[in-house]
């Protein structure tokens, strides 16, 4: 029996169909461009590649769109990108000038409406002024403009407007209209993919919050510890130069690293005394339980490392951790979580022990360098310690000395 299609499945299917159609259209146009305009065709290919690499990074994607628009249409003075808020209202998403500035530019509501209603790109020039349908463009001293619809999965969701204001740059012609039409079709696919990625990200974020809340209900102390470990991990990771999707994945993994403790018996997890060897063995299973739980979540491609980054936080440099990984086989992110996890456990009071001093905690880390923890990551942690003490614990930076 086939599973019932939910609304999200339907939207995903529509996007897939639209993607296939757009790719097919793009391929045909690309073939024509290779014959008539090889330079533009190669430019569009590079545009495709860079947009794919940007993934869900909206700011980077908008920069790529701007850069390639002015490369493909160098005579353009301004670029305006607008998307629908509702059936009647458009919201400006981006305005750029050829110099990279963000000027105040008027969007032609009349041409935008025509382009969206008719689902075709509209070419306007000064000779069309007597039509009386482009007052906003005329009043803005625009000599010529092209407004193209952005069509997603069976609907138009915005417009792309390019204009020329300088007489020395000439005017847009039929060839420009055709190329903008092609560019707008592909741009629509890029923006739809971005929207879909953002929806996935929101869904994953809500799942993570739900998991953290469930951990809080199980053991508030463990949940608070996880949040501190996450904060420490982010400080050290950024110090080591980690950024982008690697940092995003590590951020989630650090927060969820102890999620497997939900599978640990309360009499062990909340025992007001030191654990026996048998209890320590039971507790040590939480790393693999973390992987088991997190593996059941769907992740975008760039976040698929989250389960193992979290699960490997008890791996040791000498290979004596739960998974038996050693040295460089342990991901750097997991090494950072491991040190953050240990440090917070040492300087925080527990029901069975008092909090250690910062100096005593650092001494334990130093003694474990090369055996349990990576010496280079320990050095990075120490360099960040003043910031960690003030930002994470609200204590004087001098305690790190």
UniProtKB/TrEMBL annotation:
One Pfam family here: HD_5
Domain HD-GYP positions: 200-397
Give the protein name, as stated in the record: HD domain-containing protein
InterPro entries the UniProt entry points to = Cyclic_di-GMP/3'3'-cGAMP_PDE, GAF-like_dom_sf, HD/PDEase_dom, HD_GYP_dom
**CDD domains documented for this protein:** HDc (cd00077)
């Amino acid at each position: 029996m086939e599973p019932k299609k939910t609304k999200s499945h339907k939207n995903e299917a529509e996007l897939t169909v639209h993607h296939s159609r757009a790719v097919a259209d793009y391929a045909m146009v690309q073939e024509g461009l290779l014959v008539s305009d090889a330079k533009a065709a190669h430019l569009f290919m590079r545009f495709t590649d860079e947009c794919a690499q940007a993934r869900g990074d909206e700011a980077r994607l908008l920069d790529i769109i701007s850069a390639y628009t002015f490369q493909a249409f160098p005579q353009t003075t301004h670029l305006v990108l607008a998307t629908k808020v509702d059936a009647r209202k458009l919201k400006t998403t981006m305005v750029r000038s050829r110099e990279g500035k963000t000027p105040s530019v008027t969007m032609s509501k009349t041409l935008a409406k025509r382009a969206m209603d008719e689902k075709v790109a509209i070419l306007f020039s000064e000779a069309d002024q007597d039509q009386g349908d482009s007052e906003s463009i005329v009043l803005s001293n625009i000599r010529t403009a092209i407004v193209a619809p952005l069509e997603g999965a069976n609907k138009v969701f915005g417009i792309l407007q390019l204009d020329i204001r300088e007489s020395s740059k000439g005017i847009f012609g039929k060839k420009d209209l055709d190329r903008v039409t092609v560019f707008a079709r592909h741009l629509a696919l890029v923006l739809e993919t971005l929207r879909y990625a953002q929806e996935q990200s929101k869904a994953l974020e809500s799942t993570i919050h739900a998991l953290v809340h469930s951990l809080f209900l199980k053991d508030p102390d463990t949940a608070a510890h996880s949040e501190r470990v996450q904060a420490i991990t982010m400080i050290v990771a950024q110090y080591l130069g980690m950024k982008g999707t690697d940092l995003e994945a590590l951020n989630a993994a650090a927060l969820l690293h102890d999620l497997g403790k939900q599978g640990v018996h309360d009499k062990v997890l909340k025992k007001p005394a030191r654990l026996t060897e048998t209890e320590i063995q039971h507790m040590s299973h939480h790393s693999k339980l973390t992987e088991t739980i997190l593996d059941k979540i769907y992740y975008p491609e760039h976040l698929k490392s989250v389960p193992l980054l979290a699960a490997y936080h008890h791996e040791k440099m000498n290979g004596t951790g739960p998974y038996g990984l050693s040295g460089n086989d342990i991901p750097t992110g997991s090494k950072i979580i491991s040190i953050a996890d240990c440090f917070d456990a040492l300087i925080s009071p527990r029901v069975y022990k008092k909090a250690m001093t910062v100096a005593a905690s650092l001494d334990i880390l130093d003694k474990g360098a090369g055996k349990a923890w990576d010496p280079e990551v320990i050095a990075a942690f120490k360099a960040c310690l003043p910031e960690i003490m003030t930002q994470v614990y609200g204590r004087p930076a001098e305690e790190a000395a």
